[in-house]
Amino acid sequence: MPIICPTSFDTETYVIDVFGIPTLHCVLGPCNRLYHYLEENCEGVNQFSKKLGIVRDPFNNKDYNGNYCEKILKNLDDLQQIVEPKFSPFIETLRALHDVKEACFKPILKPNWRETITRFKNGWCDLFMDFEIGFSNKVHIIIEHIPQVIKRTGRSLHLSSEQVVEAAHAKFDKVWQRYKVNDLERDSHGEKLRNCVVDFNTKNL
């Protein structure tokens, strides 16, 4: 529906034209949710995680980051050999998520993009019915809003990825370790943060 902000945009401007789809987090959210369920309910999956060398981020909801989710999605054939047959819908939905990523988020939009989203939608519906796995906001975005964007632009969502920002966060965190003040109420916190930002920006012009 048109965006409600007539002073900044005309009434024909749509929300999806202004705010980019967070494609990275559309992969991270569903991937982590399904894989966490398997870790908690399937014997052998935790050992599989160790074999892949993936570790949950202790500060980010104990989720796996983008590189680790990529490892998970690239090793679904091996993961399927471990889980019980009743958990196969999780594997198939993860496969569909991987296919959505490849079809819709790469530089070139693949002709089968609609099919991949439909398979993801059907897979998640099965998980909801059989395992009570609810529809998160990110799942909703994949099913409803990504098709809207592609139909309006005729292009993939490659340029709307927030991966550059996330990479900048990671680089900034390394610099912040030299300035960090754990107590945010301390008088020195603001000065340390300013000095860190200046240091980081100076080296990344």
Outline:
The chain is 62% helix and 0% strand. It is mainly alpha-helical and 205 residues long.
Structure overview:
The protein is mainly α and 205 residues long. It is built from ten helices and no strands. The protein has helices at residues 15-18, 23-41, 45-52, 66-74, 76-80, 88-104, 113-131, 137-153, 163-176, 188-202. Helix 2 packs across helix 4 and helix 2 runs antiparallel to helix 6. The longest helix is centred in the first third of the chain and has 19 residues, at 23-41. The chain is globular and about 55 Å long. The model has no long low-confidence stretch (mean pLDDT 87).
Short descriptors:
205 residues, mainly alpha, 0% strand, globular
Strand fraction equals under 5%
Oligomer: single chain
Order of helices and strands: HHHHHHHHHH
Biggest sheet record: none
How far apart lie the N and C ends?
Answer: 39 Å
Low-pLDDT segments:
none
Radius of gyration: 20 Å
Helix content: 55-70%
Structural class: mainly alpha
| Strand element count | 0
Averaging pLDDT over every residue, what do you get? 87
Number of helices: 10
Topology:
Blueprint: H1 15-18, H2 23-41, H3 45-52, H4 66-74, H5 76-80, H6 88-104, H7 113-131, H8 137-153, H9 163-176, H10 188-202
Helix pairs in contact: 2-4, 2-6, 2-8, 6-7, 7-8
